[in-house]
Design a protein that fits this description.
The chain is α/β, with parallel strands linked by helices and about 140 residues long. It is built from six helices and five strands. Strand 1, helix 1 and strand 2 form a beta-alpha-beta unit. Helix 3 runs parallel beside helix 5. The chain is globular.
Length: about 140
Amino acid sequence: MKLLIIDAQGGGFGKQLVTAVKREFPQLEITAVGTNTVATGAMLKAGADHGATGENAVMVGARRADVIMGPIGIVIADSLQGEITPAMALAVAQSSACRILIPFNHCENIIAGVADLSMGRLIQSALEELKKILA
């Protein structure tokens, strides 16, 4: 299975997600794509097997992935402080991969009806969804 984790800004969320996935599913090969080199570097330091940066890396990774994980902003053009380009959002949204989107209420995108959970709880929930996909 090809798992793609996408993150932006400082890569802090992606770093925590990579760490959690590697701890729970050490056999999975993770490709980390950051919208910038800082985000990519953080995810590589956390244990991602491969890393790439930028719009084209998101587009290619989305085509090749079986599962894509990241904050919900990766499917919203101009989100995450403007780091998600329309092409990136479209590539993720149109991918045939299963998407596990983590609902962060920030950057002017509010998800109604979703509790304001801690980052740790959101990551745990994402791991539970990944476990269902792997079963």
